[in-house]
Amino acid sequence: MKQAKEALEYDKLKTEFFANISHELRTPINIIYSSIQLLNMYMENNQLSGNASKVKGYLDIMKQNCGRTIRLVNNLIDTTKMDTNFYNLNLQNHDIVKIIEDITLSTAEYIQDKGIDIIFDTDIEEKIVACDADKIERIMLNLLSNAVKFTEKSGKINVSLQAKKKHIKVCVKDNGIGIQDDKIDLIFERFGQVDRSLVRSHEGSGIGLCLVKSFVEMHGGEITVKSKYGHGSEFIVKLPTKVIEEEKPQEKCEELSKKTNGNFNNHIERVNIEFSDIYL
User: Fold this and answer.
1) Which one, of 235, 218, 263, lies nearest residue 105 by Cα?
2) In whole numbers, what is the pLDDT of the chain averaged over residues?
3) Which of 75, 206, 218, 232 is the most exposed place for a label (fewest CB within 10 A)?
4) pTM of this prediction exceeds 0.70
């Protein structure tokens, strides 16, 4: 009886999830299509040069909604890979302090444009650990975009990093709306959302935090959340301080050079995609 009830609840969550996914895909595609129609109208009437600012606005809207679609598709692909055990980490030794600081600072302008303060604080300058830099960035971007969505103007987001004996502790804390006690258990579930309605006030497929949890656990870490409704939330990530055998110095220098080149632009593009469902 209990298993049957759980199966029914799971099917219900899946139905709601796919309804939301359809909504999340349909919305940006409709916006892109409408923008193309307007641009086509200007072109047919030879009005492109006379409406340069409007044309630029429509192109920006199209780019932003392409970002929303890419973000959703990437999340769905990653989720499918994990379901089929086809997902592997690219573990290398990195300065995790620099990774987290760089990606946090790359979001500062976006967050401040929303009238929200962001503060980064660390008690160490450098810590080399074995991690997948791409996945660490995905973790941080998702947690930061989540904090922005649920923090009002004049709010504050704090990102802190502490070195413990066997792990690195990363906290993303906001003073936003928080999470109700009976909803906290839902936020890391594959098909769960705090607000499941199609008219919810914040965009999102509901699979971002599920992926974050998976990425953290693949690193051998854990993620927890503390929240008080009306007072904000704090997501706490703990990652083990393990290292792998170093590559040869010459290989390390060549690899570092490749990664450093264009790194800033890569961060900006990642932020544009991850935050694409916020800045509407």
Assistant:
1) 263
2) 82
3) 218
4) yes
